Every structure is written in structure tokens, then in C-alpha cells.
User: Fold these one by one.
Assistant:
Number 1:
Amino acid sequence: MELASHPLVILAAIWLIGYLVFRLFVKKEPAGVKIYPLGFIVRSDKTLKIFDRIAYAAPTLLRIASNLGVVMGFGMMGFAIYILAKNLGTYLFAPTQVGPQNIVIPLVIGVTIRFEHLPYLLIALGIVLVSHEGMHGLIARLEKIKLKSTGLFLFYIFPGGFVEPDEEEFKKASSGVRARVAAGGSFANFVVGIIAVFLMLGIFSPVESGVIVAGVSDNSLLHVNDLIYRVNGVPVNRTTLFQNITASDLLVIETHRGNLTYQLRKPINMPIAQILSGLGVTRIDYYFPMRIAFLDPLAEYSVYRAFYWIQLLAINVAIFNMLPIYFLDGSLLVTALLEKLTKNQKAIKTLNAVLTVVSIALIALNMGFTFKTFGLLQI
């Protein structure tokens, strides 16, 4: 696909044209709305009462969650640094053991994430951002920190939400209060991710019942989104995919749209994966059916993918956000701890700078070795 005809490029052009038209003919923005070339922000103070109602209705639960969030925040911080350091050590000192489990890549649509995943990513991103900022707001109100506004935004194709606390009140709050507010977002994300995991385990069978065709060559005999159950009567799953099957004159592919039969020129004895490749299949994904089937198989697959992206993004954002990097909540958590130990602001800033450099270096080196080892990857 040429760059000029790529859907994301076309969408960017539409955004820019719309922005120019607005500036030329409308000019004045509605109250609470700020419009930019590739997005807009909507602010409101009317929703602040909702945060107060929830904070006053369940103060004990929020207090427990906020304290637990601090403990888990430091745990996730240590876990993130340990995993990145261990991963880098594998690349440096045990390259023969490097595998898919060592891949560290940024999530960039069209570069490292295939365009087909965009709808699920956007759903997951919306849930992650709203829960993250929502918990920040709830804990801030629990701690009597004023909220200036809440809002929604759309940048290009990425939706989100935010809660804007009063900066002066936040700075004047005790280190413990700031730690609880800072850790709340990641705690909420982690809980959302775990809930998504349990829903996946509860709703869907843990064993796959076939494969979904995710990519095909130009002359493929199968189509994208074909669900393949069996090949010559052999169930297709993670175990059988690379096992040899024998066929003499006919090859029967059982799919959700019926059986597809192919006449063979000569007998074959090869793995199912190689057979599918010969039919033009370039990529597959596993199909996990619902325990209680009431949807079309492809609809089930879409629901599964939505849950998959929610848990993947929520848990990874929770952990990444706790890294001690200046612009992340993990840095606020470290600062709050250091202020308990020392009043020397210069020492606190110096240590924060060191932790930021080390964390960014770990991420950059892991990504660099991933690219060197595997090339440019797409998931």
C-alpha cells in the first residue's frame, strides 16, 4: 500500500483540512473545548460532583485501595527494573537463549502494531486511560485535594480522559498523600487487567479449537478471517499444527463456511502448518471458543481479542508507569519516599535524574537489541 493512500495518512489529511476550515469560518471554540490540528480537548467541571459522591460513599474501600496501590507501585517498579535488566543480560550474555519472550517493542500503530488491531487497541486504550485518571481523581478527592476539571480528548485516533488536580494543593500535600494519588492510576490499571484475564479464563475455553486466517498471499485459496477447524479430519491446534499428516489424493479443509476440498497431484506427508502455507496462508491466530456458545465464531474471536488487548495494555501500562522516570507516576512515588528520608532537595533531584537515565537506558537498550536480533516486528 502506498503511503499516500494509507488510511492513517488520509485521516490525518481530513483532520488538518477540518481544522483549517474551522479556523477560517468558525474561529470561536465552544465553551470548554480546545481544538487542535489533530485533535480536541473537552473540559468540564460539572462531573466533579461525581468524584465527590463516590469518594464520600466508599472512603474505606478507597483508602485501602490507595494504600495497597503504594505497596504494589513499589513492587511493580522493582519488577519492571528487574525484568528489563534480566532481559538485557540475556541479550548480552546468553544470546543463544533469546526468544520471543525477550522482545521489547514500543506500541506504534502501522509500525509495530498491525492496522487490523487498531479497533481493539482503541477500546483498550480508552478503558485504561479512563480508569487510570478516574482513580487519580477519586483518591485526590479522598485526600481533600481540589480538582480543577475533568475531561476527554481525542488526539488523531487515540481517545482518552484526564483529571486535573489543583497543582498548588497537590504540591503542598504530604508525601504520603502524593504517593497514594500517584500510585492510584497504576493500581486501577492492574486491577482492570486482572479482571480482563479472569473474564477471558471464565468465558472462553482454555484450549483452542482451530485457527483463524490472519494473513494471506495474493493468490491464496483461503480468505482472511477463515476459521479452520480440521485438515483431513485432524483438529488444528497448537499441538497438531507442526505434526505431519498424510493425504493421498484429496485435501479437505473444514472451515466455519463449510468444507473446502482440493485435489492433490501427488500424495503428501507434511505438517499442517506447511500445508496451510502452501495454500497461501501467511499468518494465523488461535481460536478459543466461548464455554457457552451464543455468538458467531468470528464474533467470539473479536470479543476474545478485545479482552486480550485490554489485559495486555492495562497490565503493561500499570507496570511501565511505575518506572522511576520523570514524566511517569513512578517518579512521584520515589520522590515521596525520598522526602520521608531526607530534606535535601538537591539530593532528591539528583537521584531522580539518575533513576530516570538508568530506566530510559534499560528500555532503549532492550528495544535496540530486539531490533538487532529480530528486525522490525509487527504484532
Number 2:
Amino acid sequence: MNLRFVVSFVLVCAALLVGGCDDGRKAPGKVTVQVANMAPGFGSLSFQREQESRNAAELPFKSQQTYAYDADTYDFFVVERTLSDADPGRTWTFAPTLEPNTHYTFALTEVAGEVQPVVIATPPSPANDAQIVALNAASSLPPMDLYLERPGVGIAGATPRGTFGPQEQIPPRTLPSGDYVLFLTAAGNPADVLLTSSQFNLPAGTTSTIIVVDERDQGTAVVSGVLLQSVPIPLFDVNAPAEARVINAATDRAPRDVAVNDQFSPPLFSATQFAEPTPYAQIPLGPVTYTVTPVGNPGVLELQLPTNGVIGRRATVLFSGPAGALLASYAEDDGRRLNREAKLRFMNAASQFLSVDFVITLPGGDPNQPFPLAQLFAPSISDYAPIYPGDYELYLFQTGTVNLLSGPTPISVAAGGIYGALAVDGPDTATANVVLLDDFP
């Protein structure tokens, strides 16, 4: 074989490979997949393809991730987070076949405390119209009718886009692009409106996925929607009220009145007692100013705190400090209870210390070893910390020191519980006390 023949043969083979003409084989089509955590009983879920744990995505509730895969059949894994070495966690698997020219949404829903992945497949979007598909992931609620109407039109005389029970889908629908409002009603009863959303846009040439979710006491609404486009858009009920509660942690421990937007007679909360959270009460939507006064004496303003009443949300207002010079902290509350986890939140009203560390150990553990779960100035409120059910000991330290202010305080937490620990000034200038709140006995 001469050199000229060898070179020609190599060039021909290279041309065949570059042109993709190896026995007529073509590269598989690409598929777009949206993955969304719609399981309210889980703090977060991890999603991964095959055993590629290094590429796992952590998905908090109502969040989404978008992936591009080759059209093929895959094993996908959904993993529940673990909160201790003794907890093996749980894993769910599913193996869909991804077809080319199809858009997919994997909705990680929940039924009876277990993750149930739902695969939603939609054809390519029409070029000049919008396409929607819907899933009812509210597994504990009865069937619903879904309406999509132009803003200001309402549903009087309208026909539902579909009816679906728990875990059921409304198949793809094509409709003109533009702005819409989502309505959910009890199935067959348009007078029983469960949700009226704010307006949102459905662009031409796109597919939007609407997922109905059980709020599970996250706020004041029973149900909400999530619109999956390039990012998840929450669709809250515009008629859901805002609510708030107050915790009086003033240094003198005297009761206080708390008024909202200068409504002093009667105040929203009368004679709030020291370190006892009030019940939740409805507050106006939009700008809200809390005013704290001595009981029955609205002429003495000890605190004015401007905030906002948010549709469907609950909040806690904590105030502390000496009489006449109170300070306050405000935080939104999350009443969503988790299947196998407890939620623990810390509040600091110990105003005689610049900052306080909250440390949790197992019974008999060394409080100088763990990192604090929270470091808080007074007054302030932490985020919720997930914690494995069981028995623990709580310590308070002056931040940046080994000065023990309180502890050990034995505590026990259970799955699904929501707990609060409030630090207040102790009987002397070197100590603090702990007040246990919410689900603590």
C-alpha cells in the first residue's frame, strides 16, 4: 500500500466522522427538563441523574432547576436531606424515557409523607400563542376547577380550563399570549373561590407550567400556585389576609398595649404580658406601623415600628429594652410543618448583652465544642433551623467569649414541631434566662 493511498483513506474517514455519516447514525435530540420541589413536608430535596451525586441540586420548597439532557431513558434520584449521623434519610427513584421535541417538568410532589415524582410532558409551543399545562399537587385538598381569565374580567359565566383532583393534570392548552389571572374554585362550584392570583404574563412561543400546592399552614392561605417559566413565580391568593403577633420582652416586664396605624381605641393587642406571644391578629395590607405604649396610656409612645402587611403571610414583632426606649425586631413566620424534622427559631431580647450565642448539644455534651446555631443582637429573630427529633441541651453564651449566661436547659423536639427559644435578661447583670415558646410545653 503506497503512502498516497493511506493518506486518502484517512482523509475520507475523517470526513465521514465530521459529517456524522457513520452508518447513518445521528446525535440524539436535546431535551429540556424543569425540576421543581412541590412537596410541602420537606425542607429541601436533592435531585440528581444516575449516581452523579457531585452534580446533585438542592431544591428548597417551591424552587426549580432546569437541565438539558440527550433524549434517552435515565434513572433519576430524589434524596431527602439527613440531619444526623444516625439518620439514613430516604431516596426515591424514577426512570422516564425522554423523547425528542418534548418539554418536560418533573414535579416532586408529596403524598402521605412520601415523595411522588410526576412527569409532565408537553409538545413544542406554538409560535404565536402561549401554551399552559397544570398539575394539582395539593394531595390533601379536594378537586378544583382552574380558570385563566384576562385581568378585570373575573369568572362569572366563564368556563374552567379544566378540572383536576389531587395528582391529576390538565393537559396542554393553547391560548392567546398576554396577561392573565389564575382562579381556583371548588370543583363545580364557581362561588367557592379558593384562590385569586395577581396578574402574570404568558408569552407567545413558550410553555408555562402551573402547579397547585397545599400551603400546609405556611401562611394564612390554604392553597397557592407556582408558575414555572424561566424562574418560578409564586401565585398567592390576593384575598388572603396578613396577620401578626407580638412578643413583649421589655426589661421592666410590665404589660404593654400595641396599636397598629394609630388605632389606639382599642389597640390591636391590649396589655400584652411579658414573654407571652399574643395570638395572631389580622393587620392591614401594605404599610403598617406598630406603636407600643404603656397600658391605657396612648399619649406615651415608647416605640414606633414601620413594616408592611404582606398578602397571605404571618409575622412576629419582638420588642425589648428599657421603658421609654424600646427597640423592635420583625420577622415573617413559616408555619409549615415538616414530616421528619423539627424547626427551631431563636429570639434574643437580653438587652444587657451586646450579642448572645445559642448553642445546642446532645445531653451531656460539651457546649464549648459546637458552633452556635445563632448569634443574635437584641432584639432580633433568627431564621428557622432544622433539627432532628430528640432530646438536647440549650446554652446561652456572651458572643465571642466563654461567659456562660444560661444553661444547660433541657429541651425535647418532635418531628413536625415548630419551637422557639427566647433569651431575656437574667436576675443579675451576668446571666440571661430562656423562655421556651410555641410547641414547647
